[in-house]
UniProtKB/TrEMBL annotation:
Belongs to the DRC7 family. The gene is Drc7. It is found in: Cytoplasm, Cytoskeleton, Flagellum axoneme. It comes from Tachuris rubrigastra. Residues 274-347 form the CEP76/DRC7 peptidase-like domain. InterPro entries: CEPT76/DRC7_peptidase-like_dom, DRC7/lobo, MORN_DRC7, Papain-like_cys_pep_sf. This is Dynein regulatory complex subunit 7. Residues 1-45 are annotated as: Disordered.
Length: 703
């Protein structure tokens, strides 16, 4: 870093004067803040960092090697030059003390580590592990960095730390996973620093952005003439539009009032709150764009996010950079090209750059030799030493996380996050006996008192239950299952597990022999939906009547008293191998009236479908074997059919086949009813006796 010449005249602008006034006022604020923040730090009770046992720690924690001492001297000299060049800026975060009270350079506190878990090979897995495993502790003073920085191993052991502890651990994991990651010391908003997400929308409720479809523009377009409209209708539409606009204005005014009420109070320390986070540069691991990671939440942010207000310095395990750019507009306009010496001042110059630029720097040094006779020899000596100096290895012991610790990521067994009108609860696997690992509660008011909807996620359930949605307003519950349920269930919507109270069951149809996809059943009807059947059937609708004895079977087990079948309706897709007048589209069996109605498909050029109806077709002789077909019992309308379909013998055979199919349909309906009862019984038993499965690879849990 070049030192300002003593004889150089500096023009001080109005902005510089303002910054000086601000820096003077900060000294007064620093004396007042600790008393104000005592209440914040007391939110994490019952832990005293000064009482931790450090006797078992390795010698590298308690002493400095020869290279580390040399690095500390270089850092002190760098800090002296920095204060000369930038006297108005705050001191750099260079070498805080560790848990043993020994000063350690921040770059050597990083310990790049790749843990043997697939989830930690991606940045999102590393970030979620750190924010879940550690308990957040606020800084003692919100406008100054901490005086100590403990090793990642100690932070993992006690599962708590401040933003700098979170950042160092996360950056160590990211560098170990191959990312170009850096620790950032800067300033952020109050919500980021205090982990206040009550004004944010829950990430689980955010809808994915729809990609707009690009329409192909045509060179020639057909002009469509406007349709004639009535003036009276236009006047009525204009009146309705005005009324709607008035209602919309009132709603907008109410929303503005609500937003004013919801808007948090102005932060007196805005722009002064110190925070640490992670910077991930593009390039390595195919990262397309540089982004930030907030270690408290594990969420990624764009570098232009308004929540991040400025950067003092960044570092990794190899070097340390100071930001020389203007941060009055936050981080929006910052360049993260660390090779740009104008934007970033590096502490340990890289040897290859020194070799190429040594001649230019020597020329600059000789020109300024007359004004800096006392400082020049020391600078040259320092450059020569930096040229051959490399960052020492990390003094931190190897980072280890056992399988048990990785699975039980929550220090208190549970984690609760409050969002805007929502609450998210998380548990480690096997903590709850029912396999519950996550619960999202949505409220209808800002005070979070009126529960609207609850969504729960499960893991390791033997019944393959994956998610449950409960609508508290409609009293409706929907269970979602993974593939593998013994009854091939995919989803089940119900108000109660009692029969005939309204059930919607979805199945994995590809695993079923009948290709049933969905069944909707109530006290009076049942509808089944099929996919990919060979007979092209896709809907079967059954209507039930009241029982003869008038018993209300809702909530009871109908073993003997079955519901009488009133009507069975089936719908078929078009079979291209058959002519349209032979391909049935819809057939209705009216069981009580003993009627059968057939409706055929239409050809492309047809407008009226062919139909056949049989009324009271069951007429037997004395032997009871024959079916008499008369003009009164059969009505047909087949305008497009051939002579074959007009033959009475053809209709007689068709009626005979339909009678057989009607018997089979009755049997299938009874089987469907029995299957519904069986599903409800199995689900009751599964909920009464919940069992969790353990992977054969999870040795700890199996023991």
């Amino acid at each position: 870093m070049e030192v300002l010449e003593e004889n150089e005249e500096v023009e001080q602008t109005a902005e510089d004067l303002d910054s000086l006034n601000i820096s003077d006022s900060l000294q007064d604020v620093e004396t007042k803040v600790p008393e104000e923040e005592d209440s914040v730090s007391s939110d994490v009770p019952g832990f005293d960092w000064s009482s931790i046992d450090t006797s078992h720690l390795p010698s590298s924690y308690k002493t400095n090697s020869r290279q580390e001492k040399k690095l500390l001297r270089i850092a002190d000299h760098f800090l002296q030059q920095y204060t000369l060049v930038c006297p108005d800026r705050k001191p750099l975060f260079l070498h805080p003390v560790n848990e043993c009270g020994v000063e350690k350079f921040v770059s050597t506190t990083l310990r790049p580590t790749l843990l043997p878990y697939p989830e930690l090979y991606h940045w999102s897995g590393c970030a979620s592990f750190v924010c879940n495993y550690l308990t957040m502790e606020p800084l003692k003073c919100p406008i100054t960095p901490p005086s100590s920085l403990y090793s990642p191993t100690t932070i993992l052991k006690y599962q708590r730390g401040n933003c700098f502890d979170f950042t160092v651990l996360l950056c160590s994991l990211l560098i170990g996973a191959g990312y170009d990651a850096y620790c950032v010391h800067g300033y952020a908003s109050r919500e980021i620093c205090t982990l206040d997400q009550t004004q944010d929308l829950c990430p689980l409720l955010k809808k994915p952005q729809e990609v707009p479809m690009m329409k192909k523009s045509r060179k020639y377009k057909v002009k469509i003439l406007p349709e004639p409209q009535s003036k009276f209708e236009l006047q009525q539409k204009a009146k309705k539009k005005e009324e709607a606009e008035d209602v919309q204005k009132k709603e907008e005014e109410e929303e503005v009032v609500m937003e004013v009420q919801e808007k948090p109070k102005r932060d007196p320390l805005h722009g002064l709150r110190v925070h640490a986070w992670v910077l991930v540069q593009s390039g390595k691991r195919k990262v397309p764009e540089t982004f930030f990671i907030n270690p408290f939440t594990g969420n990624s942010h764009n570098t232009t996010d308004e929540c991040f207000l400025g950067i003092e310095s960044i570092w990794n395990h190899r070097n340390y950079w100071v930001n020389m750019q203007d941060c009055r507009k936050g981080c929006k306009d910052l360049s993260f090209d660390l090779s740009d010496a104008i934007c970033w001042e590096i502490m340990l110059p890289e040897s290859n750059k020194l070799l190429t630029e040594s001649s230019e720097r020597d020329m600059d040094d000789t020109r300024s030799c007359q004004n800096h006779k006392s400082l020049l020899p020391f600078q040259k000596e320092n450059k020569e030493r930096d040229m051959s100096f490399e960052m020492p290895l990390s003094w931190v012991a190897r980072i280890n996380v056992s399988c048990r610790e990785f699975e039980n990521q929550y220090s208190q067994g549970k984690k609760v996050i409050l969002y805007k009108q929502a609450k998210l609860e998380k548990w480690a696997p096997y903590v709850n006996g029912d396999g519950l690992v996550e619960r999202l509660t949505i409220y209808g008011d800002l005070n979070c008192t009126e529960v609207v909807e609850v969504t729960e996620w499960f893991k390791n359930r033997e019944d393959m239950l994956d998610m449950r949605e409960m609508n508290k307003q409609r009293q409706l519950t929907t269970d979602y299952f993974k593939p593998g349920h013994p009854l091939l269930l995919k989803a089940h919507t119900y108000t109660s597990l009692e029969p005939e109270t309204g059930h919607t069951m979805e199945f994995y149809h590809k695993a079923r022999a009948d290709d049933l996809r969905k069944r909707v059943e109530s006290a009076t009807e049942m509808t089944e939906y099929f996919v990919g059947r060979d007979d092209f059937l896709h809907i079967r609708h059954v209507e039930f009547g009241e029982r003869e004895n008038g018993m209300d079977m809702a909530g009871t087990r109908p073993d003997v008293h079955l519901r009488p079948i009133v009507q069975i309706k089936e719908c078929f897709h078009r079979n291209p191998e058959k002519p349209a007048d032979e391909d049935v589209e819809e057939r209705i069996f009216m069981i009580e009236d003993d009627n059968i109605q057939l409706t055929y498909h239409l050809e492309d050029h047809d407008t009226i479908a062919s139909k056949v109806a049989f009324f009271r077709a069951i007429q037997r002789d004395r032997k009871g074997e024959e079916i008499f077909l008369t003009r009164d019992t059969c009505v047909k309308y087949q305008p497009w059919s051939s002579e074959k379909h007009k033959n009475v013998l053809h209709l007689y055979k068709l009626l005979w086949e339909l009678r057989k199919e009607q018997k089979e349909l009755k049997h299938q309906v009874r089987e469907s009813e029995a299957e519904v009862l069986n599903v409800l019984k199995v689900r009751e038993d599964e909920e009464a006796n919940i069992k969790l499965t353990v992977s054969m690879y999870n040795a700890a849990k199996r023991e």
